Amino acid sequence: MSVVSVALAVPGTSTPVTVEMLVVFALILLALVLFATERFPVDVTAILVMVLLMVLEPWTQISPREGISGFANPATITVLAMLILSTGINRTGLVQLLGRKMAAFAGSDRRKQLAATIGVTGPVSGFVNNTPVVAILVPVIADLAHEGKTSPSKLLMPLSFASMLGGTLTLIGTSTNILASDIAAQLGAENPALGLEAFGMFEFTKLGVVVFVVGALYLRTVGVRLLPERVPADEDLVEEYDLQEYLTDVEVPPESPLVGQTVDEALGDDDLDIDVLQLLRGGEGFSDPLARKEIRPNDTLRLRTNRETLERILEAESLSLSGGPETEDDLGPDDEPPMLVEVVVPSGSSLVGETLASSTFRQRYDANVLAFRSHGDVVRDRFEDIRIRVGDTLLVQAPPDSFTRLVDNEDFIVAHEFDETTYRREKIPFAVGIIAGVVALPALNLLPIVVSALAGVVAMVFTGVLKPTELYSSVEWNVIFLLAGVIPLGIALQQTGAATLLGEAVAATATVLPPIGVLWVFYLATGLLTSVISNNASVVLLIPVAANAAQAIGGNAFAFVLAVTFAASTAFMTPVGYQTNLFVYGPGGYRFSDFLRVGAPLQLLLSVVTVLGIAFFWGVRA
């Protein structure tokens, strides 16, 4: 197919605008809109963009081979291997062990609790992917807060922020660093004048330490004062979710039409917004699967329903009210584990995109959902058909054996620590040794990071740290597909000249700003973009632009690439900017504005610290 190219001149640039560039810009705009609105999962959006790039090859210059190159990209494979290695660490219980030692150290001292949260999370996140670190520590920190009479809201956001700060310490701290390193290496190979190459394992550690220390000091001084207390220190989930009006006990008199029917026959109608949580009979409570249990005279049914539905069935079924639970303690005997627990839906969960109805949640997990917290909004009734998103929090009631299954299920992060969870503690030395080898071999230039990481995966299987069957479930496939989908977009930016055009346009600001000012502009732009789209998509879009802008003004391309990388790795301003923020959003009871209030000053502070640090360590000019 032949394509007619039309070129237009843009003031301040020497590169004309072509039809090819406009097509790529249109695809970028489409991607940004879909990422920001979450119309589709981010990985689906990325694959859509990848397909469009190949379909529009005459304009995008992306062949099918280049379109699918993201799947074989060293960054994608390295991230895949690091996710598996992180799971291996998780299976040993090492992070939980550190968390418990942290809890023993902190006790009920709020300052020690915050210091321990930051001090453990940050360094660990430098060597184990920070996303699973937060997933593991959410229940540890939540329990630490409640046992120490501290609101979890005071510790969970610092947990997420500390993991991001710690991710800047090494190359393997975040998938963003690994992807940025690979993009820099590609740009350096295509244009040697840029002087770019893959990052070393500890190449930017000195800057990462500065950023971590400054961020930690902010969280311990200013941040702790800005953090709200959304969740009461004395946690009672019934009171926290205001469920008193939605939990009711009704007595079944002998004349009720429900007598003789099973629970499912009586109240299992999908049109009724009712969950039967418990059947009370003669002082004994039944909360195991109740669907086939026959209702007898004088039974008491504990229901979750709204006032309107309750009034309707009271009249229709000749039932009588007999009170209801006012607190969590009223829901079960004192000698049993908590009857209620919050579960967070992480990325990669099979529930994402489903509803409670379509996922047959109650049947699959033998559990009832009492409330639904989605992006700060609490829904207490008629939530069966709400589409589940990453970061949503479900308040679940289930029998003790079901809680154990929930803890072991990869579809959830359970915001409460259970002693029944089994770990391979005897494998801790092997796991630590393998991670040390994965880090040391690239640091000593003996092996590329992708080879080192894959070798570590094999070593974990051979030593029994991981079972072969756990390899595939260890991978967050949505992250892998996201990377594979957005990498070709970066290639299209380069090959069509769109990155050069944007770089020259930004470089034009050098007429009014010094090079360090242009560097700061890139940091701010990346931070703002990452607040609404994926951090990995941000580096793919902006690193080529930053490198070209640096070249246009005679700047140090590495400095500009590093500014983009650090800004994308530290997205504090919104809960959707980084998935660790989503993990703490529900359990912390936060509102969207809480992240802006605490995160925006930190982001602004680190923009100055990072840019000045880059200028000090590496210089801004070439």
UniProtKB/TrEMBL annotation:
It is found in: Membrane. It is a multi-pass membrane protein. Signal peptide: none annotated. Residues 235-319, 326-412 form the RCK C-terminal domain. Its main location: membrane. One of its GO terms (biological process) is potassium ion transport. GO terms for molecular function: monoatomic cation transmembrane transporter activity. PROSITE patterns: RCK_C (PS51202). GO terms for cellular component: plasma membrane. InterPro entries: Cit_transptr-like_dom, DASS-Related_Transporters, RCK_C, RCK_C_sf. Keywords: Membrane, Repeat, Transmembrane, Transmembrane helix, Transport. This is SLC13 family permease. It comes from Haloplanus rallus.
